[in-house]
Each structure stands twice: as C-alpha cells, then as structure tokens.
C-alpha cells in the first residue's frame, strides 16, 4: 500500500449510496492513473456497498487497492476487513484498531495532528499517518513536522481544494500522498473527472 501511495500519490475519499455511481468514480480514477481509493464508512449500507465494490475492483482492476475510511472501532474495522478492505483509515488513532490491522497484516492509516500524535501513531505501526484535517493545519505545518520526523510517511487529507496549485504546495511540503474528498467527485462527466485527476496526480509526482 505504501509503495502504491508513493507511486500514485492521489487518493479519492468518498462515499456514495449508489453503487453504480461509485463504480463510475472508480473507473474514472483508474483511467487517470490512480491506484488507491478510500471508501468512507458514512452510510448505513456502507459495508454492504463496499463488499460489492471490492468484488468489482478485484474483477476489473486487480492492481487497485480499495480501503475503508472513517473507522473508529475494532468492530467496524473487522466488518470492512471481512468485506475485503485492502487498508483501514481512521480520523483518530486507536491502538485497538492498530492491533486488528496487524493481526490481518493490513495497512493502517490513523489520523493525527500534533508531533506527539504523529510520532505515537508511527510507533504503533502506522503504514502512513493521516494528517487531519490538513486544510486547517496547512502545508506549512506539514513542512514543520518534516523537520523532526523526516522518515514518517504522511497523508494530507481533509478539506483540501482540488487544484493543481494546492497539490504542488502539499507535494513541496513533503506529503507522501494527498486525499481529496467528495467535492472532487461531484460529476456526471467521467471523462472530465479523469482529465482533472490526471492533472492533479501529475502535480503530486516528484520531478524525475
């Protein structure tokens, strides 16, 4: 998962009650070169929709990793792991969820803000630490964290504007990858979404 995040450092973060619409988003993102998606646990039917999406991904896009986000408890993590989640993302850091991810040899991305929180999440075995909400914390804040924590992989997400200039700011600040929320995905034109995602992804990839 970490290798994919470094090579394809843009991760859509979305939930939709329509499985058909979610498939459209996955297909458009894949065509743009994305290989990681976070489907958030924000609807009553989220686990069931996720399970069907995972089967679709495994059949159509076997090199795409589909993870579950907005996970708080081991029980929630377990439901999505059983549904085939390739990674688990949290808005918080929960040692209990870290443990269940370790037991399944699964990537775990907890949320954190302060230096102490980021370091503690890393010590608990985080594959990536999710700096959240990043828009509030700013690229300058991430760059400061990079000083004492140069080797900790960091995912910037939460309220980030889907523009090329913003992607370049986060890339320069040292983000390993960037998560973009549903405002990016509100489209009925998959080709336009693919083109937009390609531009954003290009801005996040280091030169050379």
Number of helices: 9
**Main sheet: strand order:** 3-2-1-9-8-7-6
Helix content: 40-55%
- Number of structural domains: 1
User: Major sheet: size, sense and barrel closure?
Assistant: 7 strands, parallel
Oligomer: single chain
The first-to-last residue Cα distance is 22 Å
Fourth-tier CATH superfamily name: Aldolase class I
Q: Give the CATH architecture.
A: Alpha-Beta Barrel
Shape label: globular
Q: Name the helix and strand elements from N-terminus to C-terminus, one letter apiece.
A: HEHEHEHEHEEHEHEHEH
Protein structure class: alpha/beta
Number of strands: 9
Task: Report the average pLDDT across residues.
Answer: 95
CATH topology grouping = TIM Barrel
Query: Radius of gyration, rounded?
Result: 16 Å
Family: Belongs to the KHG/KDPG aldolase family.
Pathway: Carbohydrate acid metabolism
Organism: Hymenobacter lapidiphilus
Keywords: Carbohydrate metabolism, Lyase
Describe this structure in words.
- By secondary structure, the chain is an alpha/beta fold.
- It has a single domain (1-203), classed as TIM Barrel, CATH 3.20.20.
- The chain contains nine helices and nine strands.
- It has helices spanning 2-7, 19-32, 46-60, 74-82, 95-103, 115-123, 134-146, 164-173, 190-204; strands spanning 10-14, 36-40, 65-69, 87-89, 107-109, 111-112, 129-131, 154-157, 177-180.
- The strands form two sheets. Strands 3-2-1-9-8-7-6 form a seven-stranded parallel β-sheet. Strands 4-5 form a two-stranded parallel ribbon.
- Strand 4, helix 5 (95-103) and strand 5 (107-109) form a beta-alpha-beta unit.
- Helix 8 runs parallel beside helix 9 (190-204).
- The protein is globular.
- The relative contact order is 0.16.
- The model has no long low-confidence stretch (mean pLDDT 95).
- InterPro entries: Aldlse_KDPG_KHG, Aldolase_TIM.
- Belongs to the KHG/KDPG aldolase family.
- GO terms for molecular function: lyase activity.
């Amino acid at each position: 998962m970490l290798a994919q995040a470094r090579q394809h450092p843009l991760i859509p973060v979305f939930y939709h009650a329509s499985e058909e619409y979610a498939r459209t988003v996955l297909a458009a993102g894949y065509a743009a070169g994305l290989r990681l998606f976070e489907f958030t646990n924000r609807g009553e039917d989220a686990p069931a929709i996720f399970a069907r999406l995972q089967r679709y991904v495994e059949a159509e896009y076997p090199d795409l990793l589909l993870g579950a986000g907005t996970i708080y408890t081991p029980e929630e993590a377990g439901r999505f792991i059983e549904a085939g989640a390739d990674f688990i993302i949290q808005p918080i850091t929960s040692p209990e969820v870290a443990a269940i991810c370790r037991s399944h040899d699964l990537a775990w991305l907890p949320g954190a803000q302060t230096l102490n929180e980021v370091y503690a999440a890393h010590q608990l075995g985080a594959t990536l630490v999710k700096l959240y909400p990043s828009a509030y914390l700013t690229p300058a804040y991430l760059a400061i964290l990079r000083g004492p924590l140069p080797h900790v992989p960091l995912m910037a997400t939460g309220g980030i504007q889907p523009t090329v200039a913003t992607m370049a700011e986060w890339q320069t600040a040292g983000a390993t990858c960037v998560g973009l929320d549903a405002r990016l995905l509100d489209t009925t034109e998959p080709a336009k979404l693919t083109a937009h995602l390609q531009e954003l992804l290009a801005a996040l990839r280091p030169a050379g």
